[in-house]
């Protein structure tokens, strides 16, 4: 029986990953952890929850032993824009937390997942149809963290035989938990503002293409990768993943199919625009398809329909 521990359970991915894993493997078999306590009515409290600062190795190991964990999904991290504002703290949290999680996986023989990101690429990376194996010279602290993390996952697999698995997530779009501190957050905020205000001012410029994916596809991809036959997995550092390559005007056009009067304006944030410009326009996902059957279900139109309906419902029941 799987006994899963998820760090960063209150984050944008962690929030939905906990719910999905509990539905698949049983409430009591998924330990959610985060540095802060969830609201009492949070779905996270429907199963085991513990406070954990991932930079506290002793506490992490104590939870792994107490809960008899066999699978670690390490999601706790600072995202790109926040990391750029506080690079030293970002290094301590992102790398210190990852090292502790990898050491827990090595010490207790855990199956291991942690996400990388398209942020692991930089300005010298081919921007179109970015290959699985290519130049990785990111110019953000977040990107440096993600490249180092990928190399650590490969090292722990090669040197210690840890079953490490990872993906390079694109921007993730969800109506469940609004993200914080990401460069791609415009693609989430725009849907909430479309429903609530009928307009949105984007901090990312038009024609700035980035890979994105609907959160349901992202969660399904994690489960599919973790359930895959390890013998077939060649890229133990991280797999390119994407559901679509979009820019703000494309999202606005999709929203206008449902909200014809929606208005999009721009007030570009130089820090996040610089990060976005350093990332690929679109990446090649053929390795993920070939090695473990990655197959996203949502395109921009379908995702827009689901996002707008869910936010309308969310606001109605408030
Ligand atoms: C960020 N949402 O913007 C994250 C993600 C590819 C972007 O890593 O930092």
UniProtKB/TrEMBL annotation:
The record's section on InterPro entries has: Epimerase_deHydtase (IPR001509), NAD(P)-bd_dom_sf (IPR036291), NAD(P)_epim/dehydratase (IPR051225)
A Gene Ontology molecular function term for this protein is: L-threonine 3-dehydrogenase activity
The record's annotation in PANTHER family points to: L-THREONINE 3-DEHYDROGENASE, L-THREONINE 3-DEHYDROGENASE, MITOCHONDRIAL
Pfam families in the record: Epimerase
Q: Which family does it belong to?
A: Belongs to the NAD(P)-dependent epimerase/dehydratase family.
Q: Name one GO biological process term.
A: L-threonine catabolic process
Q: Which residues form the NAD-dependent epimerase/dehydratase domain?
A: 4-228
Protein's name in the database: Epimerase/dehydratase
Upper lineage: Bacteria, Bacillati, Bacillota, Bacilli, Bacillales
Residues annotated as transmembrane: none
Q: Which organism is it from?
A: Staphylococcus arlettae
